[in-house]
Amino acid sequence: MSSRAAGEPPGGSGPLPRTVPRPAAVPTVVGFGSAFPPVRTQTELWNGFFRDHFGGRSVPEQIFMNSGVDSRHGIVDPFVEDVREWGTEKRMQRFQQEALPLGLRAVEACLEDAGVDRSDVGQLTVVSCTGYGTPGVDVLLARDLGLGDDVQRLHIGHMGCYAAVPGLATVADATAARGKVSIMLCLELTSLHLQPPTRDLEQVVAHALFSDAAVAVAVVPDAPEGFEVLDVVARTAVEHAQLMRWDVTDLGFRMGLSSKVPRVLEEHVAGVVEELLAPRGLTASDVAGWAVHPGGPRIIDVVCERLGLPEEELEETATILREHGNCSSPTVLMVLERIRARRDLKDGDPVVFMAFGPGLTLYAALLRYRA
Question: Which residue, of 165, 225, 253, 287, has the greatest Cβ tally within 10 A?
Fold first, then answer.
């Protein structure tokens, strides 16, 4: 048995030196940057491609035209190339090819919006459930941005639409603990995963809603302006896990999206919001902005109904769905950016940042606006 004293390092050179604890910084979202592939309207997508894809049936057309989406973005244009029979390997190669320049545009726009020099970035997180490779986009992005070789990196994969919320919580914790700037990039290329024709209505819903986007945010320690990250709450109804799936197949990733999802969210959304707000003596009526992930029209209705909110409180959510579709993890960041741009937020105003996804999972963060 060693006779080395507690706290004494190997070699007997005495106890480890004590350092003065660093006071926790306040992590604050100060900048946004977005990048989108080319756009197509929902009507031209249906008339020019998906009508034939789904056999000209009336029910898929009704789903398409009532999805709440007017236009969507895609790095794959079905009018130009047909990826329905592509293997997963070919789709992942295309992801690497397309994700890097799109992500670079989003991060550069974010740094400019935040007024942050890239030399100050200490942590880079990339969130995606639509593509993978090693070395990943995080490594290649750090290289092309000219970040230092000591930058810390994290990749968050296959969490789906809600991933921006735990992602933001993680980078906020890193910023609070280390006092360094963090960048989070959410990047999804759902158009790569167009599936072969089917009569499965869940596939119709998925192809009617999903879209491509890259959105980056900068989290800065102790910034005087922006959205302070205060708290985060999660709820997973694992008994309903099969209602929303993102399965890896030989032909890319296949979405399973049950019509029962809004019903499950209806059971939990009010409780999650109360758990988030009540410790600070707040109620839903005190919230100045609701950055809610636009999973679809019915989900927007459920949130309004269960929280007792008028429709205009989720106007930003409905607008993002209409103009961009459901872009998975970047979408709730797009809603938050729109709230910053369109709402007359006052110093100290609470904002709820909430998203849903596979699991079946609901995540919500409490932000406080500083001006």
Answer: 165
